[in-house]
Write a structure and sequence with these properties.
It is built from twelve helices and no strands. It is an all-alpha fold and 227 residues long. The chain folds into two domains: 86 residues, Helix-hairpin-Helix base-excision DNA repair enzymes (C-terminal) (Endonuclease Iii, domain 2); 101 residues, Orthogonal Bundle (Endonuclease III, domain 1). The longest helix has 19 residues. The chain is elongated. The structure holds iron/sulfur cluster (SF4). The site of iron/sulfur cluster (SF4) has 13 residues, from loops.
Length: 227
């Protein structure tokens, strides 16, 4: 019988069986996880994701109800006064830039896409403030289309710790993950890593003693190891 300890030592980081074991454990730990940003439609999710840069989802969820009450549609947001928008998003940080971006995104949605958030990567990237991460959140969590893998700070850190990539930039990490993960796991995989990154594999002092992925993990900064 193979012990977990022996299995952890023998496996190379990208061995299919090891990857399958990681994916199975993440699914077991976080079944049916969804995006933590509250939203009722694609537009609200786009705005919330733009606001979530350098900010917690909890903070964004405190801000968006009043924002969408004041400006419920892309057209209303396009016509809003910029200082009023800035005030509403102030506590999410970088508020001048974010207010400018959400108003710019509203304008593009209204003027180029008939008031509806588009569903392709190429079109989503035309919205100010929307880079691949936001486009992947919207396409994955709203449209259910796995166009790419969301790589935020948690996904980047955990993918490196689990040996799924050696890259350090979100774009390159995403490229690696798209190569090794089955496409039907792209959407949920990010949600699962984000949850695990918040609950257990935190940035400083990961809680390796509580982590059920530990037998499969060779991270250099583990705080406890069984092998
Ligand atoms: S064992 Fe530690 S470093 Fe590895 S995934 Fe778990 S918490 Fe993160």
């Amino acid at each position: 019988m193979t012990t977990k300890k022996a299995a952890g030592k023998r496996r190379s980081p990208l061995e299919p069986a090891r990857l399958a074991a990681i994916l199975a454990e993440l699914r077991r730990l976080y079944p049916d996880v969804v995006c933590a940003l509250q939203h009722k439609n694609a537009w609200e999710l786009t705005v919330a994701t733009i606001l979530s840069a350098q900010c917690t989802d909890v903070r964004v969820n405190l801000v968006t109800p009043a924002l969408f009450k004041a400006f419920p549609t892309p057209k209303a947001m396009m016509l809003a006064s910029l200082p009023e928008l800035e005030e509403l998003v102030r506590t999410t940080g970088f508020f001048r830039n974010k207010a400018k971006n959400i108003q710019g995104a509203a304008r593009v949605v209204v003027e180029e896409f008939g008031g509806k958030v588009p569903a392709t990567m190429e079109e989503l990237l035309r919205l100010p403030g929307v880079a691949r991460k936001t486009a992947n959140v919207v396409s994955g969590s709203w449209f259910g289309k796995p166009l790419g893998v969301v790589v935020d700070t948690h996904v980047l850190r955990l993918s490196r710790r689990l040996g799924l990539t050696k890259e350090t930039t979100p774009e390159k990490v995403e490229r690696d993950l798209m190569k090794i993960l089955p496409q039907e796991r792209w959407i949920q995989f990010s949600h699962e890593l984000i949850h695990h990154g918040r609950a257990v594999c935190v940035a400083r002092k990961p809680r390796c003693g509580e982590c059920t992925l530990e037998p499969l993990c060779e991270a250099k900064d583990k705080t406890w190891s069984s092998h």
